[in-house]
Design brief:
The protein is built from 13 helices and 9 strands. With 325 residues, it is α/β, with parallel strands linked by helices. It folds into 3 domains: 108 residues, Nucleotidyltransferase, domain 5; 64 residues; 121 residues, no CATH class. The strands form 3 sheets. It has a 5-stranded mixed β-sheet. It has a two-stranded antiparallel sheet with strand order 6-9. Strands 7-8 form a two-stranded antiparallel ribbon. A hairpin with a 2-residue loop joins strand 7 and strand 8. The chain starts with 6 loop residues before the first strand and ends with a helix.
């Protein structure tokens, strides 16, 4: 006898969680405090084998996801962008916590079979991801402040602005040092890091993003890695019409940015420069050529990590020499 599966959606906020039960004729919602006691008490009322989904909200969802996973539920942490478009497709006429919880429950009930369930990451992996995100914020803030200062020519505030820029630079460097220390403290992670930094163009930051990604997600192949980074070209075709393909950008924005930076560095090396120049000669724009190399680097990174063998530059050059122009 097959047991009916119950589907629940949760809209998670900093202090409250609104949950919805999809298994009723009329969706039932309730409000919970976002505390271990309140969430655990509610989870104990759910039938065994229930499915719970929530939107990724910058970390506020982590407590509920971990508690539900520990209880044996199948948990999904969903991409906010996908949920936004799904809500629009339903013609949802408003946006409230209750409506979002109902929409999430409906989404997971219909789409759960094609999605990957949530699995908790090790604490040191989560620490590295948080440090990586914080460093990106420091670098982005520094760049925005510098450009704004140059644009507005605030001479009288130049000294103060420079102090803030220096402080942000110091923070970014300190966070990078902290990441490297965290990696070296974990032998298995340190070995992965060493393998990935053997790839031309892949520096400390890109390798950190890659090791934390590979540690968290069981990719089935290099295509999945490229798609996760949002570097996969999105087709735009209808009948005889074939439009220009653009990147899907439906993945990890930090990994995508770092892969592009790695491609920029690799394109200046003797290893990848011939490939870069060949792409330009074929008519690809600079950004397009670098995105192609970024995809190549991600595929190489997955192969290196999977095979446990460092990048072989001579073998790569030999294979490139055999490629038809």
């Amino acid at each position: 006898m097959q047991i009916a599966v119950s589907f629940f959606g949760a809209d998670v906020g900093k202090s409250e969680v609104v949950v919805a039960d999809h298994g009723r004729a009329k969706p039932v919602t309730q409000i919970l405090k976002n505390t271990p006691a309140s969430l655990s008490k509610w989870l104990q009322t759910l039938p065994q084998g229930s499915v719970l989904a929530m939107e990724s909200t910058g970390g506020y969802e982590r407590m509920l996801a971990d508690l539900a996973y520990e209880r044996g539920l199948k948990v999904y942490v969903l991409n906010p962008k996908a949920l936004h478009h799904y809500a629009k497709s339903l013609g949802q006429r408003g946006k409230t916590d209750r409506l979002d919880a109902i929409m999430i429950a409906r989404f997971i009930a219909s789409e759960h079979e094609r999605l990957h369930p949530y699995q908790p990451s090790a604490q040191h992996i989560e620490r590295l991801r948080k440090i990586l995100r914080l460093r990106k914020m420091a670098v982005v803030t520094r760049t925005q402040l510098r450009l704004s200062s140059e644009r507005h020519h605030q001479v009288h505030a130049q000294a103060q602005v420079q102090k803030v820029l220096d402080a942000l630079t110091e923070l970014a460097n300190s966070l990078e040092d902290q990441m490297l220390a965290e990696i070296q403290a974990e032998p298995a992670l340190a070995q992965d890091f060493k393998l990935l930094t053997s790839i031309v163009g892949v520096g400390n930051l890109t390798a950190t993003a890659l090791v934390t990604t590979f540690a968290r997600i069981p990719f089935t192949g290099s295509d999945a890695v490229v798609a996760y980074a949002g570097l996969d070209p999105r087709p735009k075709e209808s009948g005889a019409y074939k439009g220009m393909r653009k990147l899907s950008k439906q993945g990890d924005a930090i990994l995508r940015s770092l892969a592009y930076n790695a491609a920029t560095a690799a394109a200046r090396s003797i290893t990848f420069k011939p490939m870069y120049q060949a792409l330009l000669a074929k008519g690809w724009a600079t950004t397009q050529a670098l995105n192609i190399i970024a995809r190549k680097l991600l595929r190489i990174a997955f192969g290196v990590w999977k095979s446990r063998k460092p990048f072989d530059q001579e073998l790569f050059l030999a294979k490139q020499a055999c490629v038809k122009p």
